[in-house]
Amino acid sequence: METLQFYGYLFIGLAVAISVHEAAHAAMAYRLGDPTAKNQGRLTLNPLKHLDPIGTLMLFIARFGWGKPVPVNPNNFKNPVQDSALTSFAGPAANFITALVISLPIKYLDMPFWLADILWLTFDINIILGIFNLLPFPPLDGSKIFAIFVPKRFHKQYFAFLKQSEVGFLIFIVADIFLIRNILGYSILWSVLSHVFFFVKSIILIGA
Fold first, then answer.
1. Fewest beta carbons less than 10 Å away: which of 14, 191, 197, 208?
2. What is the predicted pLDDT for the residue at 3?
3. Which of 163, 192, 187 is nearest to 175 (CA)?
């Protein structure tokens, strides 16, 4: 029962984090002139619009999941590279803001243990999702954010590189989760990100 309860809480936390993340992408894209996501019903906090079936299943298999990427058409932007970066940054930023909002009742309100557990897990997931997506590797948001630092004359080559290397990085993530963490009990990504996670978590709690 405790395991089922944990996965129930995990599902709630992931549904909240992914919905906030993807809805923020859609909202920023729409504000900057691209209605693609809005036209496909993604400008909403409804988890059913954002959860990916396979990504949700992976949550119960590997405690790691993902949502459906929000469709974005850079051709609708006035400044494609800059506006794409802003749209990409909106997702992680929304996760950090959500974590800050959640930290307030955690710190200042008395609540049942089960509700506190849900809020703490949702708080952590939002921070992890925000940090993870800032990594400058495709298809993560950080790869598009990093594009604003690439000289304009290299933009074509850079975006071509992103498309070509998406599969390779996804394979690395899967290998890190299934082969390395589940078999050896060690995650390369988490060994790096954990330090950033605890730092950001401390800053948000202190700020609250």
1. 191
2. 80
3. 187
